[in-house]
Automatic annotation (TrEMBL):
Primary enzyme class: hydrolase
Domain named USP: residues: 128-463
Naturally occurring in which organism (per UniProt): Allomyces macrogynus (strain ATCC 38327) (Allomyces javanicus var. macrogynus)
Name this polypeptide is given: ubiquitinyl hydrolase 1
InterPro entries reported in the protein's UniProt record: Papain-like_cys_pep_sf (IPR038765), Peptidase_C19_UCH (IPR001394), Ubiquitin-like_dom (IPR000626), Ubiquitin-like_domsf (IPR029071), Ubiquitin_CS (IPR019954), UBP14-like (IPR044635), USP (IPR028889), USP_CS (IPR018200)
Length: 476
């Protein structure tokens, strides 16, 4: 939903008067003696379409009876189940309009509509946005959220590489130059990230896909996020000096045990492996209500595989623990899954609450827990953690950025970045439109709303530890 249409004030409670074209460019709705021609996006729920009709007719959704060849379209009807839904389909709407709200005496002024200079005069300085270059909101939101990793910007600035024939290196170079523009106090208007986008699509052609009309397709922000971090890490080589791994790398320890008692008797022992990842994924079930619940469930996995000791398939339990926490922790909500019947990735809207402060202590190995306790109980950092640049010495995080999505599918809809400024103050990055918001508004994006933004990626930053001197020998 790249072009959400006109906004409304509190005195005019309607949504945008036009829905973006998807797979059904034009339909007709007959109401009284009028015929309305408008676009229908079947990726969105019917309530969105009904709100559109509300804005055009004054008939509130709860007073509408929408029919297609005698079949009633309800608020939660799945468009894929509606027969006779095709190009030029003719709907009939029954319902009486209430009195249309009168325009306010003074025309409302929205923060998003102010020029950069006007917004600065009224509300103080706001960082510049990024111009949407045709369905690039997924990338704009990613770039704004990752600006919260200040050490990443510093490493790019200090790297000093120039443009070359290496496409991946060129991503890092163009990102450095783009961030330099965004950080420049003289930058007033939104920046079109043309050079960066060109290099990104050159290195990863999947982000340059076009539809049959020649328009660039919407992409998945989580995939862009991961690909971008991989590119930056690769540009620093394989010498272990990547700022991505240093400040965002999570080290995990996995213990795999066979559930069959006969395995131990046959000599099969538990095995331990280690992995490094740049995110923790929260899978969402019918009982998932918050991040902690999802993380706890994700740390225990069950699988079935061949057992060499038993000579047959057996069930196993994999128990995971974190052995290294980075300064910046990325949490990914696995909200999209493939529906074979409609051949599309669809979205899980379940409400999953996430906190402004996240404590990861319970998910760590016993060894790491003992080291974290130094900062947690005595406000001093353990020597091993002090030597690990880019780690989190306490295990406690504060929320610093959120990437949200609105829409039914990852390859449609719209992405927005929300970035913490200080304390309770945040900035909402809706492409070139940047507006101030409070943290309470950010935390509301936890899910279930049919037409609202829902958190897709969370970025947490380690809370500062106020160091105390180590105890003297007499205090020991």
């Amino acid at each position: 939903m790249e072009n959400p249409g006109p906004r409304t004030s509190q005195n005019f409670p309607v949504v945008g008067a036009r829905i973006r074209v998807n797979s059904l460019p034009l339909v007709t709705v007959k109401w009284t003696s009028k015929k309305l021609e408008l676009d229908l996006d079947v990726a969105e729920s019917p309530i969105i379409f009904k709100n559109q009709l509300w804005s055009l007719t004054g008939v509130a959704p709860e007073r509408q009876k929408l029919l297609l060849r005698g079949v009633q379209i309800k608020d939660d009807t799945d468009w894929s189940t509606v027969k006779n839904l095709q190009e030029g389909a003719q709907f009939m709407m029954l319902g009486t309009a209430g009195e249309l709200p009168k325009a306010p005496v003074e025309k409302p002024v929205f923060v998003e509509d102010l020029s950069k200079n006007q917004a600065t005069q009224i509300m103080g300085s706001a960082p510049p946005g990024l111009v949407n270059l045709e369905n690039t909101c997924y990338l704009n939101a990613t770039l704004q959220c990752l600006r919260s990793v200040h050490e990443l910007q510093s490493a790019l600035q200090a790297d000093g590489k120039s443009f070359s024939g290496n496409a991946v290196t060129n991503i890092a170079v163009s990102l450095r130059e783009l961030y330099k523009q965004l950080e420049n106090p003289a930058t007033v208007d939104a920046i079109p990230p043309v050079v960066f986008l060109t290099n990104f699509r050159t290195a990863y052609p999947q982000f340059a896909q076009q539809d049959n009309r020649g328009h660039y397709a919407q992409q998945d922000a989580e995939e862009a996020w991961n690909q971008l971090l991989t590119a930056i890490s690769s540009s620093f080589g394989s010498n272990g000096k990547s700022p991505v791994t240093r400040y965002m790398g999570i080290e995990l320890e996995h213990e795999t045990t066979c559930d069959d008692p006969a395995a131990a008797a046959a000599g099969e022992m538990a095995t331990t492996t280690e992995t490094t990842d740049l995110r923790l994924t929260c899978h969402i079930s019918n009982t998932t209500n918050n991040v902690h619940q999802s993380l706890a469930e994700g740390m225990t996995q069950h699988l079935e595989k061949a057992s060499a000791a038993l000579g047959r398939e057996a069930k196993y339990t994999v128990q995971s623990k974190i052995k290294r926490l980075p300064k910046y922790l990325t949490v990914h909500f696995a909200r999209f899954f493939w529906r074979a019947d409609i051949k599309q990735r669809v979205k899980i809207r379940r409400n999953v609450a996430y906190p402004s402060e996240l404590d990861m202590y319970q998910y760590c190995t016993k060894d790491l827990q003992s080291k974290l306790s130094e900062a947690r109980n005595h406000a001093r950092v353990h020597a091993d953690l002090a030597a690990d640049e880019g780690c989190n010495p306490s295990g406690v995080y504060e929320l610093c950025a959120v990437l949200t999505h609105i829409g039914a599918s990852s390859d449609s809809g719209h992405y927005i970045g929300w970035v913490k400024k200080e304390k309770d103050d945040w900035h909402k990055f809706d492409d070139e439109k940047v507006s101030p918001v409070k943290e309470a508004e950010v935390l509301k994006n936890s899910g279930s709303s049919a037409d609202g933004h829902i958190a897709y990626l969370l970025l947490y930053r380690a809370k500062d530890v106020e160091a105390k001197p180590a105890p003297s020998s007499s205090d020991a």
